[in-house]
UniProtKB/TrEMBL annotation:
Transmembrane segments: none annotated. It is found in: Cell membrane. One of its GO terms (molecular function) is transmembrane transporter activity. It is a multi-pass membrane protein. It comes from Alicyclobacillus acidoterrestris (strain ATCC 49025 / DSM 3922 / CIP 106132 / NCIMB 13137 / GD3B). This is MFS transporter.
Amino acid sequence: MSAQPTKAASSRYPWMVLSVTSLGVMLTLLNVGTLNVALPVVSAHFHATATTANWILLSYLLFNTIFILIFGRIADMFGRRRLYIIGLSAFTVVSLLIGFAPNIWVLLVLRAIQAAGGAIVVTNTTPLLTDAFPAKTLPKGLGINVLVASVAQLIGPVVGGFFASDLGWQWVFWFNVPFGIVGVVWAMMTLRKSSTKGTREAFDIPGNILIFFALGGAILALSEGSTLGWGNPLVIAGLLAFVILTPIFLRVEWKSKSPLMDLRLFGQRRYAMAYASTFLNSFARSAVVLLMALYYETLNHASAFTAGLAVLPVTIGMVLLSPVAGSLASRYDARLLSSTGLGLSGVGVLILIFEVGPTSSFAVAAIGMFLVGAGTALFMTPNTSSIMTTIDPAHRGSANGLRSMLQNMGQVISTALSLMIVTANLPPRLQSSIYEGSTGAIPANDVHLIVVGFRYALIAMLVATIIGMFTSLVRGQRPVPPAKSSMR
């Protein structure tokens, strides 16, 4: 590749980068969506308890959340192209190995390693696009990226249900391998090195250690509180780790010359509210697909494949609204679009709260799920663009790492909290049925307990959506973007 690309080649390059990142996003998000509906099959294969079944999901989400922030910083220091290729390669290799896991503990360890590879891919995707696209067309590129993510979430439950039901749980992971190989080769052929030099700042080792144990403690406590009991020493230790280490982490980051998390961004209202809205939107939306899939498998005795089809309205809404959001984001302020998106999601969750029950109508529930997906799409593109286009190019990895970390933190806490709420008032004999599905008739009293748990979990999602609307509305006006860095 020549040092001075032609004008035609330069105009094509952003879209080639989009093709690279789209494949990476597709794989990493498919990995989450497929397991949401395949969880009962995987749990049954390994004879997992409610606790270990919970961690089949949470092990990936927890480590992915933490590593996203870490690798966002590393990408700014050492370069995004090389790190992206390493991450996608690791994700692909571990996907192959997971299918050979001999027991649940090996599976959990491999899921954590897979999460690191996925984190590298996710944290570099948006900065690569922001570096490649001109400011005027960046919202369209980000909109298409969200569209691809939506498609991944659309087909994820169906693919996961099909593989788990017909081919075996191993194929929930093995299908990643051929696409991952293609993605690595295409990235090596396509991506250029950015002319923006790495920051070469010191690596924040104390910050990395503190955030790992603080977040790990919070997730451990939330996920195990309802099964082990809130007085259990392990649960108490998790809560204490979070409460004690979080303020220490914030103090260390504030004083650090090269912090893992740049807290000074929170001193600007527009960034602070955009980041807060990112967390709350993810918290409110992430558990909906999981909750509704488990609901249909538990109370309607649906197979994993059927449950995957049942939750498609969420991602259909995202697919249809993502291109619209990308177009509108270049003309209207993020405050209006993102707040409207959260409002749509809130209406969808409200519908689901009333429709969950033994006499519910799938048609009405589908409308609610569709609105959740449509609102999410309308929120994500303008909110992401408002952050990325006003950040110094040399620190886009860190800024996007923080955004992605908060998005994933919302997802992992939402998953842990919603499952805790659903199972909190259930006797032990029913807790396992939530994770493994139910093949027999459930007594009326037990059905009522399960339905109440699902409703309370959805109410928590609605409260988060309303708070997210407020934080999105109070952000400031659109600032002037900084000068764009050049590309080789």
